[in-house]
Specification:
Blueprint lengths: L5 E10 L29 E2 L1 H18 L35 H6 L1 E2 L5 E2 L3 E3 L2 E10 L2 E6 L1 H4 L16 E2 L8 E3 L2 E3 L1 E2 L4 H10 L4 H4 L2 E3 L2 H10 L2 E8 L6 E11 L5 E9 L16 H9 L2 H7 L12 E3 L23
Parallel strand pairs: 7-12, 8-11
Antiparallel strand pairs: 1-15, 1-16, 2-6, 3-4, 5-15, 6-7, 6-15, 9-10, 13-14
């Protein structure tokens, strides 16, 4: 066996629509249906399990479009897209074959006979840049803790808790929604914008960026989430059902999130000795990227019928520097 054990591929995405990844069930508070938040910072996030689940389904859809029924009668979608549980008649469920790109990359279950965890794992998608309305137009706000998610920005200069840092000719106080903050220039802003450019963050966002403290960032984000009111529909009458008015929150469109895809080296795993679907971390990454167009078209999370959920990956082909190419021979694969 040769090559690295794994490689990490950072991904940035922008919300084309508001994104609602709910906590499940109603809560007492400002809104009825809340979204998932980081338990420490209280900043909303998209769980890695949600990303893995929808991308598995979308990759299965992509694979199904090119399936040769004569050589593979079992469909990729929906059989290999779900949780792997067969139907009552015994059909369906994950195929678990080493030549299946869906099962190999995302893992598979075999009921009580074990399974395979998969070659790709997903971190939570954290908010990197959050759009806020100001008297000068939209401003994308971030914080030192969010910027540390970017490679090479681990050390940030100290920021005051009650100031907004940005580059610009004006030093007049600026409002972030309801909050008015004094403005100060940030010495390392050019370094930050260069890193954002490498992640393919659009120029109009890089030019309208501000930095606040970690403590203030949570308040700014949670005070400027999109909140909508809706009502449940009675399927029998097709009209609004009485007493079922509810509110729900979402990350607004224009929010930029950041996550990482960790791709394991198939040569270090026991996934088969014959024809294998992927042979290196770059292959694993390529399989995952097949689901990105579907992510922009079909979205993630709930409230999809209400126009929510679409995410556009800004750097679908991006990877860490020094990523190796596929050079693994069949002989280096382990036994099943």
């Amino acid at each position: 066996m040769s090559g690295r054990s794994f490689e990490v591929f950072p991904k940035a995405a922008i919300a084309v629509d508001p994104v609602h990844v709910g906590t499940g069930g109603a809560r007492l508070g400002r809104v009825d249906n809340t979204i998932v938040r980081d338990p420490v910072t209280r900043v909303p996030k998209i769980p890695g399990s949600s990303l893995a689940g929808v991308l598995r389904s979308y990759v299965a859809m992509q694979e199904e479009t090119g399936r040769d029924e004569s050589s593979r009668p079992k469909p990729y979608y929906p059989d290999c897209a779900g949780q792997g549980q067969p139907r009552q008649d015994g059909s369906g469920g994950h195929c678990g074959q080493p030549d299946c790109r869906v099962c190999t990359v995302f893992g598979f279950a075999r009921g009580g006979r074990g399974g395979f965890a998969g070659l790709a794992s997903f971190s939570d998608a954290h908010v990197l840049l959050f759009p806020v309305a100001t008297r000068e137009g939209p401003l994308w706000v971030t914080a030192p803790s969010a910027l540390r998610l970017l490679d090479g920005l681990r050390d940030q200069e100290d920021v005051a808790e009650n100031k907004l840092y940005r580059n610009g000719s004006s030093d007049q106080p600026l409002n972030l929604g309801w909050l008015l903050l004094p403005v100060q220039k940030y010495c390392k802003m050019s370094t930050i914008t260069d890193k954002l450019k490498n992640m393919h963050i659009p120029e109009y966002i890089r030019n309208r960026m501000g930095i606040v403290s970690d403590k203030l960032f949570s308040h700014v984000v949670n005070s400027n989430l999109e909140v909508r009111t809706s009502v449940a529909i009675d399927p029998a009458t097709g009209a609004a059902e009485e007493g079922l008015l509810f509110t729900y929150e979402a990350l607004p469109r224009g929010t930029v999130v950041l996550w990482e895809i960790t791709c394991r080296n198939p040569a270090h795993c026991r996934i088969g000795k014959n024809e294998v679907a992927v042979r290196c971390p770059a292959d694993v990454h390529q399989v995952v990227t097949g689901g990105f167009p579907y992510l922009e078209a079909l979205g993630i999370g709930g409230m999809g019928s209400r126009g929510m959920g679409r995410l556009r990956v800004l750097n679908p082909d991006g990877k860490v520097s020094g990523a190796s190419q596929c050079n693994v021979s069949k002989a280096s694969q382990g036994d099943p």
